[in-house]
Amino acid sequence: MTRTELSDMIALAERVAAVDEPAVLSTLFSSRGSTYRPLGAMMVSGPPPMVAGGVSGGCLEQYVARHGRSLTQYQPAAILSFDADPDAHDSGRPSLGCGGAIEVLVERFTADHLAFLRHLNAAHGADTFSTAACVVDASRPNSIRVRHFLLDQHSLTRDDTALEKLHQQSIATQQSRFGDLDSTRRALIHFIRPMTRLVILGAGDDVRPLCTLAHSLDWHVTVADRRARLATRQRFPDADSVIAGNWIGIVEEIVFTPHTAIVMMTHSLPDDIEILPLLAGKDFAYIGALGPAHRRRWLLEGVEKTANISEEFAMRLRGPIGLNLGDRTAIGIAVSIVAEILAEMNGRTPSPLSSQTTTGLRDEELIANG
Predict the structure, then answer these.
(1) pLDDT in tens, 80-119
(2) Cα separation of 293 and 57, whole Å?
(3) What are the CA-CA distances from residue 164 to residues 27, 192, 194 (Å)?
(4) 346: buried, middle or exposed (CB in 10 Å: 19+, 13-18, 0-12)?
(5) 151 CB-near residues (< 8 Å, 6+ apart)
(6) Beta bridge partners of 263
(7) pTM
(8) For the structural domain made of 197-345, what CATH number should be given?
């Protein structure tokens, strides 16, 4: 899920509650094989066709909303199951086009759910990871009980070793996980990744598509330049922060985290020579300077004349930046830069999925049209 999806779900829930209409919270609780959305994907639905969020690629949403609304009239929660059965359409139940199988938990929406969504939304905007649990208890005949709660990343309820083990597996893999806790209880652990920050140093016209694209991914975007006429909110409405000033002051004002990507797009070698040493002690996951390979060499040679930077830091500086997609337009370059950052953040070596076999790939890594 993204912050935008969560904000949309919260807004819909508030709107439906204001007119005293029932709503349904749906959660992708378990999955097997290839599925479109990741574990923990959520959806809020009100009177048809009001839907925010999603639990599939679009093939299940209206069915889940309709049947979830019907089921939760008489019970607080229920489970809907879907797979790739080609005969499913004959019974009116849609099947998954991506070949996997999922379970969707549907619940009558309550004020507690709204509070939980608000906590998740805040967690998605944090600079450290978070976890949350959804525990389904089927110990009572013909009914299930559900609990949603946030988990502390350093400690957990020590009296529930099965839940703690699942929680630790989620942290170790940095993925949402589900599993059996005992004969009557199952749990989903939501793993909420830290917010990705993109720092763009330079505010030329070619920065604008990069800013917009990063914003569409729910990244926190900072655009900065010493030229105040370029670094303006009017030019970069999609940026979370726009800073103008001298480079020392700019770098001091920016928040850097281990999940920050830094892109130098000043088009000025003297500016980059001034900036680079200021970044040497900062946290980041990715750093690169726009321009060909010889410009990177000139940049490092220029820095050596005025400052000391470590060899390790210099080796981390990418240039040219982006993947070789063959498109030299501003938007094409933006796509290539974002693609390289995504690969780095996710620990991937970029290559076409169609050229890979499924050997060694986890099911959650395989994306198919839902």
Answers:
(1) 999 866 565 556 677 776 678 899 999 999 999 999 999 9
(2) 40
(3) 21, 17, 21
(4) exposed
(5) 130, 131, 132, 133, 167, 189
(6) 200, 288
(7) 0.88
(8) 3.40.50.720
Buried b (16+ CB within 10 A) or exposed e, 190-219: bbbbbbbbbbbbbbbebbbbbbbbbbeebb
The answer for residues whose C-beta is within 8 angstroms of residue 259's C-beta and 6 or more apart is 127, 193, 194, 195, 196, 197, 285, 345
- The residues that bridge with 336 in the sheet, in sequence order, are none
Residues 6+ apart with CB under 8 A from 127: 194, 195, 197, 255, 257, 259
Question: 288-314 b/e with 16+ CB inside 10 Å = b?
Answer: bbbbeeeebebbbebbeeeeebeeebe
Tokens of 63: 């069915």
Domain boundaries of the chain, sorted by first residue: 3-192, 197-345
Contact 64, 45 (CB under 8 A): yes
